[in-house]
Amino acid sequence: MLFFYRITLLLGPPSSGKTTLLLALAGKLSKELRWSGRVSYNGHDMHEFVPQRTSAYISQNDLHIGEMTVRETLAFSARCRGVGSRYEMLAELLRREKDANIKPDPDIDIYMKAAATEGQQTSVVTEYVLKVLGLDICADTLVGDEMIIGISGGQRKRVTTGEMIVGPSKVLLMDEISTGLDSSTTFHIVNSLRQYIQIFEGTAVISLLQPAPETYNLFDDIILLSDAKIVYQGPPEKVLEFFESMGFECPQRKGVADFLLEVSMISRFVS
């Protein structure tokens, strides 16, 4: 079970079922594939709504048009996906601040004023996402590709994330987004997503292979997979206590995430 305002770390060795789980939650599994279980959103089965509008699956591959700038890429995605209710949310926030005589932060006030202007729904959400993801410093730079010099790998990964969150989706399902990135860049991306989830009342499941300790500490919950089965799901504060009760103790000076991956692979060696 996933809750709003929380980000969940999905851990597991290769071929443990992480991608399959994320695709199932996003409603993107092939209809020819046989699987059991039930996926629901707020009690509604997936056939009662369009899960592709409610959730966003973000793969580890960054596919962009190199000739477009970062701002153009996000603006195009916003028009394709629809800005959803965020325009109304920002406009309502502006109205309440005015009624309560609250002076907003100068940086955010720019976006609030734009939200109150009719016809600016798409641009205000695009600019806000640029700010949240730290892409405002390269907003007018070409994304680039193998033939065109553009933004860095970490910025390109943020653009991939931004393409999904400019839409109405409140459930983010992210598959090994740290591929090709250093630990510092991964930390800043996850931290940006954490802020986004808090602001827009969403939830996120992020699959990472070997997160650094500082990145691991950003998560509210953990799902540990082994051979397509959930070994543990719960808060990170209780995971070591859980495995100690099972006879597995984390050695000193060893990262918790690395320890969990080793434990999840034990069943493979035993079998």
Automatic annotation (TrEMBL):
Domain of life of the source: Eukaryota
Domain ABC transporter stretches: 2-252
Subcellular location per the Swiss-Prot or TrEMBL entry: Membrane
Membrane topology type: Multi-pass membrane protein
GO cellular component, one term: membrane
GO MF entries: ABC-type transporter activity; ATP binding; ATP hydrolysis activity
Keyword vocabulary terms for this entry: ATP-binding, Membrane, Nucleotide-binding, Repeat, Transmembrane, Transmembrane helix, Transport
One Pfam family in the UniProt entry: ABC_tran
UniProt cross-references to InterPro entries, sorted A to Z: AAA+_ATPase, ABC_transporter-like_ATP-bd, ABCG_dom, P-loop_NTPase
Family per similarity comment: Belongs to the ABC transporter superfamily. ABCG family. PDR (TC 3.A.1.205) subfamily.
Full protein name: ABC transporter domain-containing protein
Organism annotation: Lactuca sativa (Garden lettuce)
